[in-house]
Specification:
The complex is a heterodimer. Chain A is of the alpha/beta class. Chain A has one domain: 3-Layer(aba) Sandwich (Rossmann fold), CATH 3.40.50. In chain A, 34% of the residues lie in helices and 26% in strands. Chain A has an 8-stranded mixed β-sheet with strand order 3-2-1-4-5-8-6-7, with helices on both faces. In chain A, strand 2, helix 3 and strand 3 form a beta-alpha-beta unit. In chain A, helix 1 packs parallel to helix 2. The model of chain A has no long low-confidence stretch (mean pLDDT 93). Chain B has 2 domains: 256 residues, Rossmann fold; 109 residues, Rna Polymerase Sigma Factor, Chain: A (Orthogonal Bundle), CATH 1.10.1740. In chain B, helix 3 runs antiparallel to helix 7. Helices cover 32% and strands 15% of the residues of chain B. Chain B is an alpha/beta fold. Chain B has a 9-stranded mixed β-sheet, with helices on both faces. A two-stranded antiparallel ribbon of chain B has the order 3-4. The chains are: A alpha/beta, B alpha/beta. Chains A and B meet through helix 3 and strand 3 of A and helix 9, strand 13 and helix 10 of B.
Chain lengths: 196, 377
């Protein structure tokens, strides 16, 4: 079995066995397949790219082609134990509304995103004076799908501001977990577990 | 006792009991012509039912007995193909109302004359009921999957909605849960073309002595009307881009326009040929009955108006595929079904594939479709 991307590995380790999961922006279905095979999870996916949906279907996964910006309204209230949005929030048109949708559809939500306040990003702006191109943000400003850059502190403030509970959070550098101290400066990306 | 007759182009089952129909009528002595590929295993759990489209037939992967052309899905069905006959026992039956050996308007009524317009109007669900009776006769309780494109997809949906406990998976390609006003309009155009042909004669055009339920090789009946119906329908199966690429404004075997009404353009010549060739293999009355069945199809209406209620509590896995150039049953129709299945909590996949061939893409060379079909099954 291929190794999961580190943020997906964190999520996979913390989804309750046997639960129902909606993976929004599920890509080739790596996380869904892992959840199904290792934890007996009933996983469903939403993915915008037809080729990736075809890959998922050929892996025996249930994935609907659709757009997180437009199609979440078709899922019923509380129809999943978890809604998962990995490395996608910063690409959505209205991240705040998407967060609301996640906790309408799922009783809990996992959200992972690259941290725009990581010191490398800050240094790039401060000393280079250019929009950062880093390992996690590899695309130049005019081509990037990331239209709403977000920092760890921004995200926490948004979640709290919308009355959500931050149940847990994980901070990562590369494939290693890192401590919470000065995470907004030191973590490349983060995973949050939210509930209402 | 099962009345089953085999010949070199398949087998025909005659039902002992009358088949109840949605119209409230019932049909006696129903014949169901079918073909199978691959071997049914001992547990009888590897059967896949293929449902054919409007003018399709049971000869999925074998030469057509009338035209000698290869089967309509030979690229999809066979050993090592996406619907792998080394693994699966594939069954395809000619729908009732059709003219390839199953009971339809050209078949003989009990008193020995063709039914013609005395044949009852049937529905998609009636076609499915006949397939259920066939599986009962074959001793197959549960299908590994039901698979269909276009009208075949409607049957697959109807199977899942009405006999879901007997279907583990449903694969619905380039199809819809209901016929739209535009769909009905095109069908009505075809029917009126047939009925406006003086040779149609109220549907009573069959030769008196025929006992073979297949189309009469002597070509009687409303051939021109049926050809026009086919021409109009054929346009709806192709995309504008496909037509433009294939024909453009090119002229047919001539250097200049003739200032007449010959088939100057290649596209005209092509359509005329398609229309004419169709009359060799299809019965005009069957065309009326099957288009009617498709027009009556509205799965939500059958289940109290909510499509998701048609699938309430379903255990069936679903996969829906649409094509971006299909304007007959566009992606929005498949997406509607996907959302309804989601609302019903069913395991569903949906994908819109890119292919230049319009509605006919499901029959043509689209490698991504092969991947989805093989993977889903």
């Amino acid at each position: 079995m291929t190794r999961l991307r580190p943020d997906l590995a964190v999520i996979a380790d913390h989804v309750a066995p046997g639960s129902r999961v909606l993976d929004i922006g599920c890509g080739d279905g790596d996380l869904m397949a892992a959840l199904r095979d290792r934890r007996g999870v009933d996983a469903r996916g939403l993915e915008i790219d037809a080729e990736k949906v075809a890959t998922c279907v050929s892996r025996g996964l249930s994935v609907v082609q659709g757009d997180a910006n437009a199609d979440l309204g078709f899922y019923g209230d509380g129809s999943f134990d978890y809604a998962i949005l990995s490395q996608t929030l910063q690409t959505t048109r209205r991240p705040d509304l998407i967060l609301d949708e996640l906790l309408r559809i799922g009783r809990r939500a996992f959200v992972s995103f690259p941290n725009f306040a990581h010191w490398r990003v800050r240094a790039s702006l401060m000393f280079g004076g250019r929009m950062p191109v880093t390992r996690l943000l590899p695309v130049t400003w005019y081509e990037t799908p990331n239209i709403h850059h977000v920092t760890i502190d921004d995200f926490a403030a948004l979640a709290r501001g919308r009355g959500m509970t931050i149940e847990r959070r994980w901070f990562l550098n590369g494939d290693r977990l890192t401590g919470a101290a000065a995470a907004n400066l030191r973590a490349e990306y983060a995973v949050f577990l939210l509930s209402r | 006792m099962v009345d089953l007759v085999h010949d070199d182009t398949g087998a025909t089952l005659t039902l002992a009991d009358p088949l109840p129909l949605d119209s409230g009528r019932s049909l006696d002595g129903v014949r169901i012509a079918f073909r199978t590929y691959g071997t049914l295993n001992a547990a009888k759990d590897n059967a896949i039912l293929l449902c054919h489209a409007l003018t399709g037939d049971q000869h999925v992967a074998s030469p057509h007995p009338a035209t000698g052309k290869p089967g309509w899905w030979v690229r999809m069905v066979g050993p090592g193909k996406p619907i792998d006959t080394d693994r699966f026992h594939v069954i395809c039956s000619n729908v009732i109302g059709s003219c390839m050996g199953s009971s339809g308007p050209a078949a003989l009524a009990p008193e020995g004359r063709p039914y013609a317009m005395r044949f009852p109007v049937i529905t998609i669900r009636d076609m499915v009921r006949a397939q259920v009776a066939l599986l009962d006769a074959l001793g197959i309780d549960t299908l590994h999957a039901v698979v269909g494109g276009s009208m075949g997809g409607m049957q697959a949906l109807s199977w899942a909605a009405n006999f879901g406990e007997r279907v583990k998976a449903a694969l619905v390609i380039a199809s819809t849960s209901r016929h739209s006003a535009q769909n009905i309009a095109f069908h009505e155009l075809g029917r009126q073309a047939i009925m406006a042909d003086p040779q149609w004669n109220g549907g009573d055009y069959y030769a008196e002595t025929g006992t073979d339920p297949r189309p009469d090789p002597r070509k009687v009946g409303p051939e021109s009307g049926l050809a026009v119906a086919r021409m109009a329908a054929h346009i709806t199966y192709l995309s504008e881009q496909g037509l433009t690429e294939k024909f453009g404004r090119r002229l047919q075997d001539r250097e200049a326009k003739t200032f007449g009404f010959d088939a100057d353009f290649q596209v005209e010549s092509y359509l005329r040929y398609q229309g004419l060739a169709f009359t060799d293999r299809f019965d005009a009355n069957s065309y009326l009955y099957i288009t009617r069945a498709m027009d009556y199809f509205d799965l939500a209406e059958e289940h109290g108006g909510r499509l998701s209620d048609a699938f309430a509590g379903t255990k069936t896995r679903f996969c829906l595929v649409s094509f971006d150039t299909d304007w007959l049953y566009p992606t929005s129709e498949s997406r509607r079904i996907a959302h309804a299945l989601n609302a019903a909590g069913a395991p569903v996949s949906f994908v819109e594939l890119s292919a230049p061939f319009g509605h006919d893409s499901f029959l043509l060379d689209v490698p991504a479709l092969d991947r989805v079909v093989g993977g889903f099954l």
